[in-house]
Amino acid sequence: MYSYDITTPTPHFPFDVAKGNISGSKAVNIFGFNRTIGTTFETIWDDGGNYTFPTSAVQMTAVSSSASDTMNVLISGLDANYNEISETVTLTGTVAVTTTASFLRINSAIILSGSNVGNITIANGGTTYGYIGATLGTTQSSVYTVPAGYSLYLFRIDVTSGTNNGQKYLTFRNVVSTSAGRTLRVAEATFATSQVSFDRQVPFKIGEKSDFHFEAKSSSSENEVSIFIEAVLVKNP
Q: What is the rounded distance in angstroms from the CA atom of residue 17 to the CA atom of residue 28?
């Protein structure tokens, strides 16, 4: 056991962040899953294929593939100025409902009660920006945009696949794009085991207003790939 003291560092910093004890910081846990990673790079997210970011802030529609889904869904993202916003919408089954707020980015979405029977799609103009698979209750997407005035520090990244073997390997990488238009494809790595883990002693920093996602490809056939990311969002001085 230990006693938290705001003036004294402790060896349990991540725990303090998760509890909300560290001013200006909060834990960010990102989960991504793609059932059909093929031989060309695509985003590790639950809707599959390559994720596309909106070009401007737009209202979103939320709809389920099942008429049984009438629960509230909390949509979290950023507005036109990259400031954090969220909105709760009430699903009306297979009839789309439109958000009041305009979202430049969708960082996550989660149901607030029950269990969703159908697939829930959050979209605009036919392009999906958030997807909740049936019965899952939340998005599984390695897509995130850092809010204005903050930096995101990646501490741990785990990538897993149950279909890897000695004759087949997976390649993944982090794609980071700034609001100024620069895109970097960094930390490319290849593995042929069921899991690879990167536990960073010095965290990887992603600056404000930066989009990022992880993408992967296989040396052959299709593969189920998941990713788990532990990060801390810190308010800039």
A: 10
The whole-angstrom separation of Cα 90 and Cα 101 is 14
* Judgement on whether residues 156 and 229 belong to the same structural domain of the protein: yes
Pick from 132, 155, 185: which residue ends a domain? 132
Q: Classify residue 114: in a domain, yes or no.
A: yes
- Residue 134 predicted with pLDDT over 80: yes
Q: How many distinct structural domains can be found in the chain?
A: 2
pLDDT in tens, 94-130: 999 999 999 999 999 999 999 999 999 999 999 999 9
- In terms of domains, do 41 and 148 share one? yes
What is the DSSP track for 205-221?
EE-TT-EEEEEEEESSS
CA distance linking residue 102 with residue 26, whole number of Å = 24
pLDDT score of 14:
75
Q: What 3-state DSSP class applies to 14?
A: helix
Tokens 């709760």 appear where? 88
Residue from 63, 62, 61, 43 nearest 53 by CA: 43
| Element containing residue 13 per DSSP (H, E) | helix 13-19
